[in-house]
Design goal:
Blueprint lengths: L2 H4 L10 H6 L4 E5 L2 E4 L4 E4 L2 H4 L8 H13 L11 H11 L8 E5 L2 H18 L7 E5 L8 H6 L3 H4 L9 E4 L24 H9 L4 E6 L15 H12 L2 E5 L13 H5 L5 E4 L11 E5 L1 H6 L20 H17 L1 H17 L7 E7 L2 E6 L8 H12 L2 E2 L1 E3 L2 E4 L7 H17 L2
Parallel strand pairs: 3-13, 5-6, 5-7, 7-8, 8-9
Antiparallel strand pairs: 1-2, 2-3, 4-10, 9-10, 11-12, 12-15, 14-15
Helix pairs in contact: 4-13, 5-13, 14-16
The chain binds pyridoxal-5'-phosphate (PLP).
Amino acid sequence: MDHANDLEAYWMPFTAQRQFKATPRLFASADGMYLRTTDGRAVMDGVSSMWCCNAGHNRPRIVEAIRAQAGELDYAPGYQFGHPKAFELANRLVALMPGTLKHVFFTNSGSESVETALKMAIAYHRVRGEGSRVRLIGREKGYHGVNFGGMSVGGMPANRKMFGTLVAGVDHLRHTHGDPRNLFARGEPEHGAELADDLERLVQLHDASTIAAVIVEPVQGSAGVIVPPKGYLQRLRAICDRHGILLIFDEVITGFGRLGTPFAAQYFGVEPDLVATAKGLTNGVIPMGAVFAQSKIYQAFLQGPPNTIDFFHGYTYSGNPMACAAALGTLDTYDEDGLLTRAAMLAPYWEQALHALRGERNVIDIRNLGFMGAVELAPGAAGPGARGFAALLRLYEAGLLCRTTGDTIAFAPPLIAEHKHIDVLVETLGKVLKSID
Ligand SMILES: Cc1ncc(COP(=O)(O)O)c(C=O)c1O
């Protein structure tokens, strides 16, 4: 086909349009651990495509659930009406959650889940008479999607700088990356729990009475798998409690088994007040997100006459029947294959294999937790990001899909992976690293 003409109309997300359209990378099909390109090459999925296909591709229960749902109830209104599968899904999901995170609100993406959680936090304080708590605290290097709230609490400069002054009243904790003592740490790094105390600095500056919530990814994914120092999240929770600040975990990546527990909340033994999720909820197959709220938050909204709307928020596709069917099929698949805990079994082998790349050309750090990990390269002569992008292209040519941020190459393979897939991943990566200047 004439790529120059045929590829022009589509303005692709987060893509180098000109480079892509000159040398397109198109997938035609996918099954299990592999995607297949339009020219028939198999590419191993090293990152669950976009951290979302946790059960691998083309899973029969999900395919069948969607097929059946389309012929039964394709859509149903979600405001003031409902359908049984949304309630069934909500019950199945809250059963996976710790503590009192027993209510769930449906969205269509991670970005929408974040916006929803931020709005819940501010409104929660207001309905209980603390309307001065309006500030939101994010963290440097955080990624919380691309909508205005998420972008504002996010901390990746390239995602923010083009878009004006963003949401007012937002501040950021310092990130936890870069302590030289933590280089090549296996799992949670030893040093830096005290960085959580940065929240005390912001409390001093703004006063706790103005702060609604803190949002963090338990493990920062998009910034290149930045694992929290031991004790950091527990300390953040304690500081939030001391000051009446809600803690929001953005588990869009860490949710649904990535760390070997259903959610990172269980892995770290920290119960947040709100949890934003998406991606693995439907195995990436149909767009869907979900926000989990502690009972105290849900209950606080149930005031006033019973026939008034309690939370003025929602999406046309909240709890969409097709998405609910896909999510139920996904949960069945996770259950049958034991995928929500499988990462715990894979993690030691994964850690060992990935860290074997220490000493390879240009490698300046390797990080891992659960079944996610990253290899960071030194920036090359062509400037930051060029070497990372070269790695993305060469890995793709060599039959391995990854994600890159700057010069960091990230992996989070489907949770169905076996040791042999890890071996192929590391071997391919090792070869490619040798080939990059
Ligand atoms: C932690 C986190 N939050 C939010 C998002 C945004 O999700 P979406 O792209 O579905 O809007 C992502 C996407 O990668 C993410 O990793």
